[in-house]
Amino acid sequence: MLTLNKILGVPCRLAKWQIHGFLKSFTFHPEKQLLHKLVLGIETSCDDTAAAVVDETGNILGEAIHSQTKVHLKTGGIIPSVAQQLHRENIEKIVKETLSASGITPNELSAIATTVKPGLALSLGVGLEYSTQLVNQYKKPFIPIHHMEAHALTIRITNKIDFPFLVLLVSGGHCLLAIVQGVSDFLLLGKSLDIAPGDMLDKVARRLSLIKHPAYSTMSGGKAIEHLAKQGNRLHFDFRHPLHFCRNCDFSFSGLQTAVDRMITQKEKEEGIEKGEILSCAADIAAAVQHTVASHIAKRTHRAILFCQQKGVLTPSNAVLVVSGGVASNLYIRKTLEIVTKATNCILLCPPLKLCTDNGIMIAWNGIEKLCAGLGILHNTEGIRYEPKCPLGVDISKQVQEAAIKVPSLKI
Ligand code: KG4
Ligand code: ZN
């Protein structure tokens, strides 16, 4: 101990517990000492209260998430005031859990990044209010995050891909195709004209009363449809493909949902069952709906790839398509998109499943990306507002429409 004392320059008269405390302060935390950027990300835009601490290499130091899915499944959809209440009850616990798992104190953070757009107003408000309080308490920079931009850049945690690349975001609230030119630089090629595919699948799952089926009762609608579809034959039903004659990259799902609804009502009559009971042909309907959704998404994505290649935005031989968002966890949809990327010499990249759905990691990572690029860092929280509606990037969908690219048919 004497030698150690000499080396460390500790006076010899220190008590044992003091020496222990002194040595502890020298404990080597490579992830803390060598890296100087640590961002806490907070996500409350919809029905997940999530947080994470990520460093500039994409290392996840800690994370926590509270999902409201089970509660909303029981009420048959998200009730904003219920979501708000659940965010309020959980946000502090989730942030504390995240920090304690990370082994860091708020003082060690470089910045706090929080989703402020787009999303449910009441949900966004909880995250923003809590973050503002943290930011002011610890005097940290604040980085407001666009939820869809965060989804789009998540892939760069796991794959070091360069800009530009093409991204398809498909979730419960969104459906869009965009070129990612930089951290805050997006060109919107097309989006859903009505509802998002996840929302549509959730509605079909509810209409099929899958919540009453023990195997699917705790799954999100989209996941339940994917699992049920494995036992069905898609050829037993034939739904019209949306926007078949529109040569653009927009999407539409509400017409398909109405058609499926009508079909379910007709089958209920034929089978003589009441609304709420499970149809014998539910698996066939699930398979046909999933196929129609996958084909529609694939067709629009195919056109987007051809457009980017034609305009020289993506190199014909080395283009990257990134697919993310909750619906991107659907393996049938991924397989369908693989057919498209193979046919167009593209590389298909999807973040790991848990990063496809809403999470705090993608928000913290977007904060890191912005911090490194010196973009959107605020040192004053005054006047920051959440924005329930906020388009992504510069809309060039008119140019896509004018190009009117005919997509060759592929065997899906
Ligand atoms: O990205 P996300 O977690 O939240 C937002 O909507 O932003 O996506 C949730 C959506 C839900 O609509 C859910 O039904 C859908 O993603 N989803 C799926 C699957 N897993 C989740 N849709 C199709 N197949 C799945 N395996
Ligand atoms: Zn999302």
UniProtKB/TrEMBL annotation:
Keyword list, A-Z: Acyltransferase, Metal-binding, Mitochondrion, Transferase, Transit peptide, tRNA processing
Enzyme class: transferase
Recorded catalytic activity of this chain's protein: L-threonylcarbamoyladenylate + adenosine(37) in tRNA = N(6)-L-threonylcarbamoyladenosine(37) in tRNA + AMP + H(+)
Record bears the keyword Iron: no
tRNA processing is among the record's keywords: yes
A Pfam family annotated for this UniProt entry: TsaD
Cellular component terms (Gene Ontology): mitochondrion
Subcellular location(s) per record: Mitochondrion
InterPro entries: ATPase_NBD (IPR043129), Gcp-like_dom (IPR000905), KAE1/TsaD (IPR017861), TsaD (IPR022450)
Entry's Gene Ontology molecular function annotations: metal ion binding; tRNA N(6)-L-threonylcarbamoyladenine synthase activity
Catalytic activity, EC: 2.3.1.234
GO biological process, one term: tRNA threonylcarbamoyladenosine modification
Domain of life: Eukaryota
Role, per record: Required for the formation of a threonylcarbamoyl group on adenosine at position 37 (t(6)A37) in mitochondrial tRNAs that read codons beginning with adenine. Probably involved in the transfer of the threonylcarbamoyl moiety of threonylcarbamoyl-AMP (TC-AMP) to the N6 group of A37. Involved in mitochondrial genome maintenance.
NCBIfam families: gcp_kae1 (TIGR00329), T6A_TsaD_YgjD (TIGR03723)
Family as reported in the entry's similarity comment: Belongs to the KAE1 / TsaD family.
PANTHER family: TRNA N6-ADENOSINE THREONYLCARBAMOYLTRANSFERASE, TRNA N6-ADENOSINE THREONYLCARBAMOYLTRANSFERASE, MITOCHONDRIAL
Protein name: N(6)-L-threonylcarbamoyladenine synthase
Source organism: Sarcophilus harrisii (Tasmanian devil)
